[in-house]
Design a protein that fits this description.
about 55% helix; about 425 residues; mainly alpha
């Protein structure tokens, strides 16, 4: 008996959506295959490690700042409710949201850029491609008894597809408006076999609806919550949008970081519209009353953005459950502009200034040093699962990928500890 004998799924999910790479006998008929997917991610070691990985500011910055784990849990809550309102199976969306950042390395996007440079000779590094690799290969849960091959969490096709934010390889990446290929991709060349299986029957380079919901939930969560963290941390006062010079700076950062997703006029209108909301916080002083007002603002913004997307999508597709490739998520331009404005505030007052800090250069050096020393001292310096991967690697490129897998698995804290133990004594 396999998962295909489980209780009927919600909505329009069929047998192929519920199929796993490796057939398994279900442990209980009381849970759907998608509920099991969610549980497997929730109990994974990769999810636990996110608690010590950077979201925007490092986990040790203060007690309030969000980590990758708290961000992930917030994305899952937003995505689950948004998906449910559209008729998606909430556990498929929840699983995708819980999984969406599993592949991110130490030190957030700073670490991702460092590993991308270090792994350039073997096809690069991308957090989303690393997520697929982790879900289907690296995270220990299921092994094929016939071949001995690890198949990761062995999730259903629907959940894996929902977790695939960029359903293409680096070689097949779509072109950006300036004619250059997107730097984002969702699969490495040596994971192509399982990617083809996941994407069976899917339109080329088109995300399923559940993946689109996950992506919007991610955008909503980090745009709103990064601003909240910045206000509480004393890095941003929301009154700045009343200053013409600041508005110009924020608009410039939106263009530099996020391109031309919305017209200039739409962004300008968002700069007028959001501060006019009755919940927009001014005069934040750190008191409980101010904290409560700030939390109310974030809650209202999340509801505002989700509600607009739900209404716009329903206007196009009507009532009834929308799943997989039945629909495209519709996000109105004014809503997208408001989300981008919040991202622009975080970039202007938090992300861009930190790029010049010595700490961030040091983080990239730590990862570069670890890749070098682990490559020299492998397999003995690797953790046992990665040492086994090293032993089975067929060439230098495959061995470098194993080293990158090991480094990417580390947390901010463990990367610094490994560096102190393995690199510092050599200097």
């Amino acid at each position: 008996m396999t998962d295909l004998a489980d209780p009927a799924p919600v909505g329009r999910y069929g047998d192929e959506d519920r199929r796993r790479w490796l057939d398994e006998a279900p442990k209980s008929l009381q849970r759907t295959p998608f509920e099991r997917d969610r549980a497997r991610i929730l109990h994974s070691s990769a999810l636990r490690r996110l608690g010590a990985k950077t979201q925007v500011l490092g986990p040790a910055t203060d007690d309030f700042v969000r980590t990758r784990l708290t961000h992930t849990l917030e994305v899952a809550q937003v995505g689950r409710e948004l998906g449910k309102a559209l008729g998606c199976d909430p556990d498929v969306v929840d699983a995708a949201c819980l999984a969406h950042d599993l592949g991110h390395p130490p030190f957030g996007h700073n670490g991702e850029r460092a590993l991308a440079d270090l792994a350039a000779p073997i096809g690069g590094f991308e957090g989303n491609a690393q997520t697929l690799r982790l879900l289907t290969r690296l995270e220990p849960k299921v092994t094929d008894p016939a071949s001995g091959r690890a198949v990761g969490l062995n999730l259903t096709r629907a959940s894996l597809d929902a977790a695939t934010k960029y359903p293409w390889s680096a070689a097949d990446a779509p072109l950006r408006p300036d004619g250059t290929p997107s730097a984002k991709f969702g699969v490495y060349a040596d994971d192509a076999e399982v990617f083809v299986w996941v994407r069976q029957g899917a339109p080329d380079r088109v995300r399923c609806l559940e993946a689109q919901v996950m992506d919007l939930a991610d955008d909503i969560s980090y745009s709103v919550h990064d601003v909240e963290d910045a206000v509480v941390g004393g890095r941003l006062e929301l009154e700045v949008l009343e200053v013409a010079e600041v508005r110009v700076r924020v608009a410039a950062q939106v263009r530099a970081w996020y391109g031309d997703a919305v017209p200039d006029a739409a962004l300008d209108e968002a700069m007028d519209r959001l501060p006019a909301l009755t919940t927009w916080v001014r005069g934040y002083d750190g008191s409980r009353r101010a904290l409560a007002a700030l939390k109310d603002m974030t809650s209202q913004l999340i509801g505002r953005f989700c509600g607009a997307a739900i209404d716009a999508t329903r206007e196009v597709y009507g009532p009834g459950p929308l799943t997989r490739y039945d629909a495209e998520l519709v996000v109105p331009t004014p809503t997208l502009a408001e989300i981008l404005l919040l991202k622009g505030l975080a970039v202007t007052f938090v992300m861009a200034p930190r790029e010049q800090e010595p700490l961030y250069r040091r983080q990239r050096e730590i990862l570069a040093d670890l890749v070098e020393v682990l490559g020299d001292r492998a397999p003995v310096a690797l953790e046992p699962p990665f040492a086994a991967d090293w032993a089975h690697a067929h060439d230098d490129a495959a061995r470098l990928r194993v080293v990158v897998d090991q480094v990417a698995s580390l947390t901010d804290v463990s990367a610094a500890d490994w560096h102190a133990r393995l690199v510092s004594p050599r200097r």
